[in-house]
Amino acid sequence: xxxxxxxxxxxxxxxxxxxxxxxxxxxxxxxxxxxxxxxxxxxxxxxxxxxxxxxxxxxxxxxxxxxxxxxxxxxxxxxxxxxxxxxxxxxxxxxxxxxxxxxxxxxxxxxxxxxxxxxxxxxxxxxxxxxxxxxxxxxxxxxxxxxxxxxxxxxxxxxxxxxxxxxxxxxxxxxxxxxxxxxxxxxxxxxxxxxxxxxxxxxxxxxxxxxxxxxxxxxxxxxxxxxxxxxxxxxxxxxxxxxxxxxxxxxxxxxxxxxxxxxxxxxxxxxxxxxxxxxxxxxxxxxxxxxxxxxxxxxxxxxxxxxxxxxxxxxxxxxxxxxxxxxxxxxxxxxxxxxxxxxxxxxxxxxxxxxxxxxxxxxxxxxxxxxxxxxxxxxxxxxxxxxxxxxxxxxxxxxxxxxxxxxxxxxxxxxxxxxxxxxxxxxxxxxxxxxxxxxxxxxxxxxxxxxxxxxxxxxxxxxxxxxxxxxxxxxxxxxxxxxxxxxxxxxxxxxxxxxxxxxxxxxxxxxxxxxxxxxxxxxxxx
Amino acid sequence: xxxxxxxxxxxxxxxxxxxxxxxxxxxxxxxxxxxxxxxxxxxxxxxxxxxxxxxxxxxxxxxxxxxxxxxxxxxxxxxxxxxxxxxxxxxxxxxxxxxxxxxxxxxxxxxxxxxxxxxxxxxxxxxxxxxxxxxxxxxxxxxxxxxxxxxxxxxxxxxxxxxxxxxxxxxxxxxxxxxxxxxxxxxxxxxxxxxxxxxxxxxxxxxxxxxxxxxxxxxxxxxxxxxxxxxxxxxxxxxxxxxxxxxxxxxxxxxxxxxxxxxxxxxxxxxxxxxxxxxxxxxxxxxxxxxxxxxxxxxxxxxxxxxxxxxxxxxxxxxxxxxxxxxxxxxxxxxxxxxxxxxxxxxxxxxxxxxxxxxxxxxxxxxxxxxxxxxxxxxxxxxxxxxxxxxxxxxxxxxxxxxxxxxxxxxxxxxxxxxxxxxxxxxxxxxxxxxxxxxxxxxxxxxxxxxxxxxxxxxxxxxxxxxxxxxxxxxxxxxxxxxxxxxxxxxxxxxxxxxxxxxxxxxxxxxxxxxxxxxxxxxxxxxxxxxxxxxxxxxxxxxxxxxxxxxxxxxxxxxxxxxxxxxxxxxxxxxxxxxxxxxxxxxxxxxxxxxxxxxxxxxxxxxxxxxxxxxxxxxxxxxxxxxxxxxxxxxxxxxxxxxxxxxxxxxxxxxxxxxxxxxxxxxxxxxxxxxxxxxxxxxxxxxxxxxxxxxxxxxxxxxxxxxxxxxxxxxxxxxxxxxxxxxxxxxxxxxxxxxxxxxxxxxxxxxxxxxxxxxxxxxxxxxxxxxxxxxxxxxxxxxxxxxxxxxxxxxxxxxxxxxxxxxxxxxxxxxxxxxxxxxxxxxxxxxxxxxxxxxxxxxxxxxxxxxxxxxxxxxxxxxxxxxxxxxxxxxxxxxxxxxxxxxxxxxxxxxxxxxxxxxxxxxxxxxxxxxxxxxxxxxxxxxxxxxxxxxxxxxxxxxxxxxxxxxxxxxxxxxxxxxxxxxxxxxxxxxxxxxxxxxxxxxxxxxxxxxxxxxxxxxxxxxxxxxxxxxxxxxxxxxxxxxxxxxxxxxxxxxxxxxxxxxxxxxxxxxxxxxxxxxxxxxxxxxxxxxxxxxxxxxxxxxxxxxxxxxxxxxxxxxxxxxxxxxxxx
Lengths: 526, 1114
Prior knowledge:
The complex is a heterodimer of chains A (526) and B (1114). Chain A is an alpha+beta fold and 526 residues long. Chain A contains 15 helices and 19 strands. A six-stranded antiparallel beta barrel of chain A has the order 14-15-16-17-18-19. A four-stranded antiparallel beta sheet of chain A has the order 5-6-1-7. Chain A has a four-stranded antiparallel beta sheet with strand order 8-11-9-10, with helices on one face. In chain A, a hairpin with a 3-residue loop joins strand 5 (100-103) and strand 6. Chain A is extended, with a radius of gyration of 33 Å. Chain B is an alpha/beta fold and 1114 residues long. Chain B contains 46 helices and 24 strands. In chain B, helix 5 links the parallel strand 5 (126-130) and strand 6.
């Protein structure tokens, strides 16, 4: 045996645990389940402990479950969120070993070869992981074996050990390296423990092969002729007779730069200096690829075992050290107060996580270049402002397709693209502007004389001045949102004797309710 | 004439584009005092009949006269602006229907593709309104060109000047006025209403969102800007159009040009059927008398002669002869034994149902099997001179062969003269609340709890249902959602094809009604549904499929094959009094029998004890929502058992009610009560019946109800009786049987009972071969056959055919279950039933037929089957799964091993080449673990849905006994009221709408069936066990009422987890008896189990999922 040691983590209730942790679980003692749509029916794919005590299980449809437990709180599955949660847990696990392998939907593998001693031995490591995950709200089981396959099987299918056995193992853990995960321990487990897909497992069961031992005893050639290679391969892998390729969660970033320090560094100036060095290192590599940075992380490895990550986002690919450093400076100014360096940092790495190619522009026409430079400048300003103030605080205007004038425009984050691009409004073909560019918010009340029910104003008083209307058009009737029980408005474009143009409206129709309609001026036409 | 007519009305038959029904539009137009209304929906005439009928009935009731014109809004695919067209005369109408038909036929179902050129070709006789679509600022040249072309083609053109409240109406109307002046078109005022009243704006927005598949929050400018596209008061229109008063006046001038009304669609019946006679009436008379002679070979009885004469006279007067001939011809074809091209085939079994059974003519023509004279059925129910509607003849055919009849009709009349009626699919109950809640942006989860508040019997969401589902009735948004969903009930969603209503015309169909493509290839559907056709007096014949007819036909064929020479009872047999048959029904031994096999019927049979044919008619009619809701069942039973005297509430009703001992049971009796006791005219009574059938659609029965009850009370009836009678009519509305219909069905009840009584082998095989049909799953049918002494043999590669078949077998009467010993002398069957491949899931008919064809002297190994049978290896595996290799000495596991070992890469042909080299026969031995009986049973259920090896409860009997569960067959020996515990697989859960929340469960163990009653309160407590359990135990007292045994549940236990242990059960089945204690305590409450056992739980689910889930019925 190569001496490899693997720890498999199994998170049987990841889907519900995640919701409960996020405060989205039931506030009372109702059971919680997660469902997803499978072939037209809603199927449960996660239940919390309470639901399972009440008899709900993953083989049920939502309808059945609901019929049995009307109080059930059911939440639609969010696979991406679940995947993210698993990934977060994996990231957290990287403190135990650099090699963490995702095993979606609810498992992880940790290659703990040679690092268990750092945590007081295998059993203590295992116990620490399980305990700390539980403390964070994730029910977990973990087992250690010489192969990922065996660890996987034990984590899911081996009976729980007694407390006495656990403590005994903790005492012996240093010397306990094998004898534990050979065929002997795998044999009594059900064949599902071999990580078979559903079809393969069903075939085994149909053939009466329910435990690993039965498969191990089967004559190899005639067995694989009928059941395929897969089951035997999985068995071999679990027993370490066949290799298995494991892909760690965090592959080395495509481009990265690393510096180690002889003495730990503390000050932000030192950190900035390191960042700049790393940027210079990276820039060379970026240039070879003709690419720039969209998203990068500066990982600072603390002496205390914790990592601090400073991430930068750019709205267009960046490679020049100067703009990059501008971003880092902004970020560190904000972040430095938050992370206390404690014992300092012993190393730093710049991971370029997302990059995009930079179009090389040579010999472009001056005007185009200027325009581009202009856009770039704006982009630069947006980047700086966004990193200083926060992405949500830097916004640009956006049109919404809504009848109500107040809701016809709004703001969105200046970084990134709009979710739905409103159809651009073409200038009216007759040159008549229908609405003012700016609206009074709130609209200003006025006193109006007009003919009932919906004649245009004849004169009105605004800001203590009476204005005679000489021209008017309307009404444009906008009835508002009935869901919010808004009142109907009639809008008029009017022109007074002085040639000033106003956008007025009457709120409420005559006869619509008892309230007397009121008038407002909502905007002015230039 | 002065005033205004609104001519551009869009109703909700422009699917999901309007917020009002056509009826509402017409009614509102009347109450606003409009001079006229023109209804024009998008490329369709589907809604116009409703508008027309509404206007007609308002006129009839003196509630206002409004000129209603019908047309269509043409929406083009080539960028032409919308045109609204109204036919001036009949020829113009035909042009319109043809135009729409062309558009429909070239487009996929539900769409209509029109080009301007199509319109121009059909513009003659159409008054055309152009709906301008242009932006101010753009020059409307294009519109001018269209107007000129319309004028050239149609003579005149109108230009709509819609008032839109968009702020610039006056400028816009002025421009349109100029345009009209330039082109010689006439300007027309309109608000283009989409809703009849401003209050419908929310609903309009909701349907818009449904159409655009978006949510209210995201819809933005798609929503209505205001509520002004509604019908308005004429004086309001005059005010709005003060710059163009001529546009308002023009609306009246427009009306004057229209000389067409729907009344002109006088229908003329097809002529083909009078061949060889001078006219249809003569043909009908000749055929009727000829038929009468056949029916009465010993001479036509006096009463029949009289009835026939009278009927023929009435039919002659109202000229319905061609209709009878049409139907008779279809029936004749079905029985002829020839297909549409004249090739010889099996005759198709058929029988008329419904009110046609009131007619002696139909009886003599062979359309119906009920002798109306014998049953005293009234011809006037069927054909009424007063109603002026064509009679309704529905004919049932074997459901598997209905298509042949349909193809015959197409062939005989041609596709341009025969089409299927449409069915209007409406938003109902759950579909309405689901769609509306989706638009409101509620989560799937919330939507399903909302949908749950609706039951099939509710007419809308009610507050108490919402609270029951834990929904907050104080939430304004939610309540608006619910209110809108209720408002949307009955909104048309789309047109679909009627199951079998055929329209046949003398002229081309597309001159009468637009024709569209159906979802099914080679089918065409007209745009009107049954009611519309009936309202216009257009002939239609219902060609329906009935599973029981298929079953009977198959049974007769099996009898002829296996019991040649035996005399059989058939549909036209007059002998319906075999007391052995009735004796069987008295014991409620009716599984598989038509109509009377349901749980409710089974508990009625021993009480009603039918003794003759008319009793069967009553049996069929009594267990229906009508009589149940009207509370008529118990009074009738009491009178029948002689506990109460038969009498009518008042002597005047005795004539109506004497045949049913004074208790109204049939639909026509309820109608008669309306006439005799509540003072309705016959046509009012008929209106009442129709209002009931459609009350979900229109929802105005309140006034009729008041009139009915007050009418009866004022004539001295008890108010309670009046209420009950009305409740009964309500129940009849959708689910009632007229007597003639019950009589037609009673024949099928008798014939199927007769077969079951004498030939249970034939009956079971025929039933299984006609699935899906009826109330029971194949497992129960098989079980019932076995109880009746029939040996049932498993599916086998060397014996089975696709269908279930009969093989020589033991004499059934020697093997009867003791429950049925009474039948020892009756049984004539001497065959065993061999299950066919159709019983197994996942086998293909063509492949299995090939297997049978290639079988020869039999297959001697899996390999032999593979080489000769011509099957895919995967099919062979499937056969192994269903344990079909027993005749080769292989059980399913060995067979699977063998099947998996077949060369799965190469074809069968190249095998011999490799036989030598890859010597698979010399594989090392590997003994697969033997399969236990329990595992086999689980697999049997999984693959075939039943097991002939043993009942799962038999294997679990020790565990069950340890839990003090008694066997179902012991129930009859238990004293009334004694408490017992029974357990079994849940076959059926039924929650009839008429039983106020009571759940009836049927449990099955190895000895029989236990009927359980679960009261609503207990159900709430044991919801999970009742609905989720597959193996369930019930504690409670036994109730034995004239042989009908129920257990009234007091506690419910879910034993489903025991099924997981089934796979580990095996030897026990034949062992002398187990010695070991049940492994766990007797009272293992699943709630007590630790959560970490989820995985074990899953195993339970796996084994349990294989077992029947139980069929749920309402």
